[in-house]
Amino acid sequence: MKWNQIPLGPLQTNCYVLSKEDNSCLIFDPGEESEKLSDYIRHNQLKPHAIILTHAHFDHIGVVEDIREEFGIPVYIHKKEADWLLDPALNGSLRYEMIKNVSGKPADYFITEEQEMTIGDFTFQILETPGHSPGSLSFYFQDSGLVIAGDALFNGSIGRTDLPFGNHNQLIKSIHDKLLILPEETIVLSGHGPATTIGQEMDSNPFLNGF
Length: 211
Description:
Residues 12-192 form the Metallo-beta-lactamase domain. The chain has 211 residues and is α/β, with parallel strands linked by helices.
C-alpha cells in the first residue's frame, strides 16, 4: 500500500490518499483545494472507495461535498461529530472571517465504536482518540505499519485543545492509551506537518514527558 500526503488550503491541512496496486484508494480529510486533490487522483488514475474523516473541523472537511459528488463515494465520520458537517458554528468555520462557511450534507456512515473495518481491499483498526475534538479518530493500518492520527499527535507536538469541545487531559490519555502502545516503528501521519514515528514521539515529544 502506498500513501501520499497532500497539504491543502491556507492551514496546509494534510489530506492523505492511500492506494493499492489496483489503484483503488481511500481519501482522508479533504480539507481544501478540491481541484488540486481531484487532479492528483485523476492524474494517477486512482479509483476512490470512500472519504474518511479523522474529525470535522473545517480545515479537514472543506471540500468533502465536492469530492463526494465528483467521485460518487460515501463519507465516514464519528457519530459524535455528525452535525459538524452541517453546522459552521460546530466545525469552526463561522469563527473566521477569511474562511468560507463550511456546510454540507450528512455523512453516509457513522462510526460509533472502535472496530476493525474493511472498505474494498483496505482493512484497518479504528481507534477513538478524543481530546482535540469529541469524535476524533485515528486509523491504524497494521500491515503497512502506519497510523493516520488527525490532529491528535504531531511531529514534536500534540493537537490544540483550546477550541470549543477540546479537552487536554482527554487528549493526553488518548495518545497514551491508544497511540503510544503501537509499535515504535509505526509511522504517524498527522493532520499538519511532517510524518513522524511512535518511537520518535515517545523519545522527544515535549508534551509527552513522563510517558
